[in-house]
Amino acid sequence: MGAEKADLLVGGRSMLARVVDAVAAEVDEVVVVGRPGQALTLPRPRRAGVAVRRTDDAERDVGPLAGLAAGFAALDADVAFVASCDVPLLTPAVVAGVLDALRDADAAVPEVEGTPHPLVAAWRRGPALAAVRACLATGRRRVQDALAVLAVVRVPEAALRAFDPTLDALRNVNTPEDLERARAVASGRG
C-alpha cells in the first residue's frame, strides 16, 4: 500500500480512527495493538469517556494471533470486539449486532458466503486468551486454530445485512483499488 495502513485516510479520517470510532460507540475500552516500534497515533474517539490505549505484539511477525493475545491480555473487559485497522467502513450497528449475537458463546464470528470474519468479531476474553496462548505455544498461527477449541456462534449474512445491507463493514482494504472503493463509499459515491 506504500504507507502504514492505519494512517491511510478514508472520508477525511485515518482508517484506525474510523475503526476506533465504530468500536468505541459500543464499548468503554479500546486497546490498539501495534508492532513493536511501530509509530501509531492513537485517535481520540468521538464518544467521550472511552479509554483508548496501546499495547504491542509480544512476538514479531507471528500474525494476528500474537496481536489477539496482546490485546486480550491488555483488556480489562470480559468481552472484546476485535477489529483490524483495515476495515474502515465498520459501523457501530455492526459492532452492536455482533456483540449481541455473542450471548453465552466464547466468540461470535460473522460469516459471509461460507467465509468467517474472525477479525471483525466478538470474543469472550478469558477463553479466547487461553485458546490463543495455547495455539501460540504449540506453533499454530491461524486464528481458525483458536476458534476450533471455542464455542463459536456464527453470525449469518442475513443477520449482518440487517445492520449493513451492503456488507461494506466487513471489506478489508488490502490494495490501492480497495482503498479507492472505501473512499468512494465513505464519500457517498460508492
Give a description of the structure:
The chain is of the alpha/beta class and 190 residues long. The protein has one domain (5-179): Spore Coat Polysaccharide Biosynthesis Protein SpsA, Chain A (Alpha-Beta Complex), CATH 3.90.550.10. It is 36% helix and 20% strand. The chain has helices at residues 15-24, 64-74, 92-102, 125-137, 143-147, 157-163, 176-186; strands at residues 9-10, 13-14, 29-34, 51-56, 79-83, 107-112, 115-116, 120-124, 152-155. The strands form 3 sheets. Strands 5, 6, 7, 8 and 9 form a 5-stranded mixed sheet that branches. Strands 1-2 form a two-stranded antiparallel sheet. Helix 2 (64-74) crosses helix 4 (125-137). The relative contact order is 0.17.
Overall mean pLDDT stands at: 94
CA radius of gyration: 16 Å
Order of helices and strands: EEHEEHEHEEEHHEHH
Question: How many domains make up the 3D coordinates?
Answer: 1
Instruction: Return the CATH class.
Output: Alpha Beta
Helix run count:
7
Helix content: 25-40%
What percent of residues are in strands?
Answer: 15-25%
The CATH architecture name reads Alpha-Beta Complex
Q: What spatial form do the alpha-carbon principal axes imply? A: globular
CATH superfamily membership? Spore Coat Polysaccharide Biosynthesis Protein SpsA, Chain A
Structural class based on helices, strands and sheet pairing: alpha/beta
Which spans of ≥5 residues are poorly predicted at pLDDT below 50?
Answer: none
Record field, number of beta strands? 9
Largest sheet features: 5 strands, mixed
CATH topology type: Spore Coat Polysaccharide Biosynthesis Protein SpsA, Chain A
| Amino-to-carboxy terminus distance | 21 Å
